[in-house]
Automatic annotation (TrEMBL):
The keyword Membrane appears for this protein: yes
Keywords: Membrane, Transmembrane, Transmembrane helix
Organism: Sandaracinobacter neustonicus
Cited InterPro entries: Acid_resist_chaperone_HdeD, DUF308_memb
Protein name per UniProt: DUF308 domain-containing protein
Classification of source organism: Bacteria, Pseudomonadati, Pseudomonadota, Alphaproteobacteria, Sphingomonadales
Domain of life of the source: Bacteria
GO CC terms: plasma membrane
Keyword Membrane among UniProt keywords: yes
Transmembrane segments annotated in the record for this chain: 7-25, 31-52, 59-77, 89-108, 120-141, 147-168
Amino acid sequence: MNWQVRTVLAGVLAAIGLYVTFNPVSVTSLVAGIVPWLLVGAGAIYLLGVVLRKRVRPLTMILPGLVGVFLVYAGLSLKFGDPRAVGPIGLPFLFALVLIGGGLAKLLSVPGFKQSRYFLLFLGSGAISVVLGLITLFNWAEVSAGFLGVVLGLELIADAAFLVALALRERDKEDAKETLGIANK
């Protein structure tokens, strides 16, 4: 994907993030109606992948099978059970884990960008995701739909910043310069 496409996608992501941030309750209620079916669909895809696999090796089938079963369970639990929980686990808690996991994934990729002039953008995006996840995690009993919407909007903006940094890094051909040993200035 070239840097122009990444930049456009980052702009769209940032615009969606701003919209969600300023309309948190309506977006959260809309998403709550769609997410269960998306989870069931994703789980079905995982399970079909396990069933239709040509090579039957137990080790490579266990994890995708478990993920598929969990996704179907989560979707059905949200749709037909308490819409604020997946089994015994509340949605704010799951959302906090997703935010922390995404932030840690971003932060784990940061050492590869140490020479980049956009290093602080990469670092800031990951740190914001982790902080939002921790805020949600430690206040999960008091979290409202509006708060989740605002956090989701801010996370989308942080993801857009990360994507912009990747696009600018590609535009400036920083990875090629690092391979050749040329310092970025």
